[in-house]
Every structure is written in structure tokens, then in C-alpha cells.
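re the bet — no i am not wrong, look at it urself. input seq straight from the record:
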Amino acid sequence: MAASGKAKEKEPVDIVHQNAIHVETIMKEQRSQKLYTKFSINPFKKLHVLTDKPMARKTHEETEEDPAFLKTIHGAHLEPTKKYTHPMTEAQEIGWIATPLIVSDRTDRRLNFPRQNSEITKYMDAAWRLKEQTQNLG
């Protein structure tokens, strides 16, 4: 295991050989694949029918509803904070706790800055409204 002074250079990629490898791989995949054209319902799985047949004489009040199925459907429509006790993904961590950290006080002048109009802004607001009215009339 004598180390040579030169590092072994990599040969350039031959596109023809790469293409031959891809063709051979695709041929192997196609040999093992089956194309299914007939589909049917799995007889071993319980089927939940939600709607009646169009010509059925049974009224809506007489139909039986599976409470476990309804609970599952309603549970699937809940927001994540009601479904899980903690976030399941990193994206759910953002906004998981939606309650504000402090109660907002609208009368506190340090944190609340309501819009205030000066004489110039009141004048420009009136001029802008007058301009809009004259444009709408003409």
C-alpha cells in the first residue's frame, strides 16, 4: 500500500454509459411492475355509507348514525390546539399559545398611540374630500 505522489484523478462521466445504466434500470422496474385496471372495494374493511339510495323510502330520522364515526369526523375538523396537547411540528410551535402575554390597556398612553389630527391634516382632509366630490360630479 504505497502511496503515490499523485492523487488518483476521476475519469469524466460518460453520458452514453450513464444513459445505458438508466435504460437498464427502467427495464428492470417495468419487469416487476403490474398494471391494475380492475378496482373493487375491500370486502374485509367496514364501509361507512353516509347517504341513502335515491329511491329509498326511509326518512332521515329513521337512519342510524355511528357515534364513533361522527366523533372522528368532528375531531378531524378541530383546530390543532384542541386536538393535541403540544405542537406536533415546528411550524405549529409558532402561534401555539395564542393568549396575549399582557392585558392590553387602551387608556395607557405609553403603549397606545391613537390617531391625532392637527390643523394641517384636517385642512388637507377637507380639501381631498372636496376634490373627490368635484371629480365625481364632472
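see?? Helices lie at 15-32, 67-76, 80-83, 90-93, 119-137. told u. also The chain is about 40% helix and 0% strand. so pay up
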